[in-house]
Amino acid sequence: MREFDVVIIGAGPAGSVCGYLLKKAGVSCLLIDHATFPRDKLCGGGLTPKCWKLLEELIPGIKYEYNCIRDIRLTVEDCHCCDFTTETELRLVKRKVFDNQLLELYKSLGGEFLHGAFLRYDEQSDGLVVTLKSGEQIACRYLVGADGSTSTVRHFLTGNHDNGFLILEQYEKKAPENRIEVELSRKYNLRGYYYRFPNSEFDAIGFGADVATAQTYQTFYDILKEKNIPVTKLRGCHIYLKNDYPLNDRVILIGDAGGFANRVTSEGIKAAFETARNAALAITNGRPFREVNAHMFAKMQKEERFAHFFFKPSIIKILGWLCHFPSVVKWCFDRTLRP
């Protein structure tokens, strides 16, 4: 049985950055993922200014491919449209390429990677034993679950298989305008939104909703039909938006696995980086993750309350009215994303 200080399940942004930081600190770790990289990932791929500046703090000098975006169009109830230019650029990445670049950075420090799937863990007096579906077992002091919203580590820890927020998405040829488009409407009869995110090669078109029913899919089909967009390869995933699991000092959940995506926008890459950093700090300093990551848990509670407020019909109506004042919308947006 091989032994490591830390075993990380999931080689996405959260897992790879956590592994990178641990290796920089001299901690032995093993990164495990069932996928073969580069692998595709359903995600608009938007890095807000807060997100990409945090990444540059964690990995100074990092280079990666992205499409620079500053123009945004917000549409509310079809009839209210607001165009504005952001104060600081947003960066749109192709997740297939971006995630692989982060994994390679971890490997460049001598970090070990194993292609495999998590099955279970067992607590021992001096640590944990992780068992993979292949039957291989690895001893470790800490287990980090960074395996996304459908986290098998979280499922094993809680037995809870709640799905969470549904995202439907497909790729489309690039539109002439290099801008992000977001639409809100009460006609969806859902707590949801439509978006179009342009990266360097194609546009990611998606729809988010808090319920997964046939009506949800039909709503997205209707939106595509209204916009004369043919249905191609439609994909779906769930974003877990809860922190209702028991906290374990030896088993740490980060990124989407821990339910840290934004409660309003479902954006999760910044939270992936932030919780990856906090997990690395907790492990290297021998402090409980619940203590190091306390501000993130508090932030999630505030976002949960705000999300219930934000999607009320009265608030959507106010947003429609605000579209008549693009400078106000721009100020609010810039203030929200300013690092």
From TrEMBL:
Organism domain of life: Bacteria
FAD-binding domain boundaries: 4-156
Record-linked Pfam families: FAD_binding_3 (PF01494)
Molecular function per GO: FAD binding
InterPro entries in alphabetical order: FAD-bd, FAD/NAD-bd_sf, Geranylgeranyl_reductase
Protein's UniProt name: Dehydrogenase (Flavoprotein)
